[in-house]
């Protein structure tokens, strides 16, 4: 495959998998949509190709450790009941991890779609922003569950969360199409990308997680300054120790401001 500096892992060309489709190419790795065991079961393949500029032994060790760390954290989240993609299969030596494919759109896309169709005032009027407020609360609630499970994400952004639509209702169509119409903002939040995650229960690390999300949120979604607090409201609903973390968040913000004043 032309995208690869080195031969791709064999799973990408394995006859049982659907022709893999490259979804994103990040700094650390590539993400493909493929299938697992049967063509009807879509799967996400995260592949970290080796970096030719690194020392080969060091490179192999790093890749192995990172893939395993990500798979372990995903497994831990599942055990603790946090909704994340389930791990199907790992080949840490070859540098890949195969997991459940999450349908839906990244929250970044959903929020920007929503913002795109609204005026400045509409973004702030209660009636218009009700749906967004609700979505932001679900985002915060998902982060709260993650923290309650003892996991710190390390890279919380709206690109690292998917909004998975609810499965179609099975009720008969007696009320016509209207009652079945889904809003773009409906669905459940699934946090993804645990490449920088760690296990931990320090308030400080949790506060930094929230701070990273806040910064990412405001830079990705302008005009939402007044709405970010809804994420924190949602966070409080699922995480008992939220108050202490939010207090720490004040300190982290303060440090952030000082840092940016210094340039
Ligand atoms: N399990 C998954 N299901 C569906 N899409 C995914 C899945 N994992 C990742 N993606 C998509 O691929 C993108 C990159 O994956 P991610 O794990 O965030 O890797 P990176 O480290 O490159 O940011 C995500 O932003 C998302 O759009
Ligand atoms: Mg990512």
Automatic annotation (TrEMBL):
It is found in: Chromosome, Telomere; Cytoplasm; Nucleus. It catalyses: L-seryl-[protein] + ATP = O-phospho-L-seryl-[protein] + ADP + H(+); L-threonyl-[protein] + ATP = O-phospho-L-threonyl-[protein] + ADP + H(+). GO terms for cellular component: chromosome, telomeric region; cytosol; EKC/KEOPS complex; nucleus. One of its GO terms (molecular function) is protein serine/threonine kinase activity. Component of the EKC/KEOPS complex composed of at least BUD32, CGI121, GON7, KAE1 and PCC1; the whole complex dimerizes. The lineage of its organism: Eukaryota, Fungi, Dikarya, Ascomycota, Pezizomycotina. GO terms for biological process: tRNA processing; tRNA threonylcarbamoyladenosine metabolic process. SMART domains: S_TKc (SM00220). This is EKC/KEOPS complex subunit BUD32. Component of the EKC/KEOPS complex that is required for the formation of a threonylcarbamoyl group on adenosine at position 37 (t(6)A37) in tRNAs that read codons beginning with adenine. The complex is probably involved in the transfer of the threonylcarbamoyl moiety of threonylcarbamoyl-AMP (TC-AMP) to the N6 group of A37. BUD32 has ATPase activity in the context of the EKC/KEOPS complex and likely plays a supporting role to the catalytic subunit KAE1. The EKC/KEOPS complex also promotes both telomere uncapping and telomere elongation. It holds the Pfam family Pkinase. Its EC number is 2.7.11.1. Residues 17-263 form the Protein kinase domain. Its main location: nucleus. NCBIfam families: arch_bud32 (TIGR03724). It is an enzyme of class 2 (transferase).
């Amino acid at each position: 495959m032309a995208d690869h500096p080195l031969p791709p892992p064999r799973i990408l060309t394995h006859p049982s998998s659907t022709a893999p489709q490259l979804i994103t190419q990040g700094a650390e790795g590539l993400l493909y949509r493929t299938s697992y065991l049967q063509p009807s079961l879509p799967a996400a393949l995260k592949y970290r190709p080796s970096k030719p500029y690194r020392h080969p032994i060091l490179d192999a060790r790093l890749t192995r450790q990172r893939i395993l760390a990500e798979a372990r954290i995903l497994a831990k989240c599942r055990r603790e009941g946090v909704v994340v993609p389930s791990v199907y299969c790992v080949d840490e030596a070859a540098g890949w991890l195969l997991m459940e494919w999450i349908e839906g759109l990244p929250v970044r896309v959903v929020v920007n779609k929503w913002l795109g169709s609204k005026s400045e005032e509409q973004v702030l009027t209660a009636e218009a922003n009700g749906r967004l407020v609700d979505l932001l609360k679900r985002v915060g609630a998902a982060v709260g569950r993650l923290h309650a499970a003892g996991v710190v994400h390390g890279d919380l952004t709206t690109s690292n969360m998917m909004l998975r639509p609810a499965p179609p209702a099975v009720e008969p169509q007696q009320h016509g199409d209207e009652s079945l119409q889904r809003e773009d903002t409906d669905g459940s939040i699934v946090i993804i990308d645990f490449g920088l995650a760690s296990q931990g229960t320090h308030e400080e690390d949790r506060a930094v997680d929230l701070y990273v999300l806040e910064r990412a949120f405001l830079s990705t979604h302008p005009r939402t300054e007044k709405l970010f607090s809804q994420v924190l409201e949602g966070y409080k609903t699922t995480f008992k120790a939220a108050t202490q973390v939010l207090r720490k968040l004040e300190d982290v913000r303060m440090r952030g401001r000082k840092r940016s004043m210094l340039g």
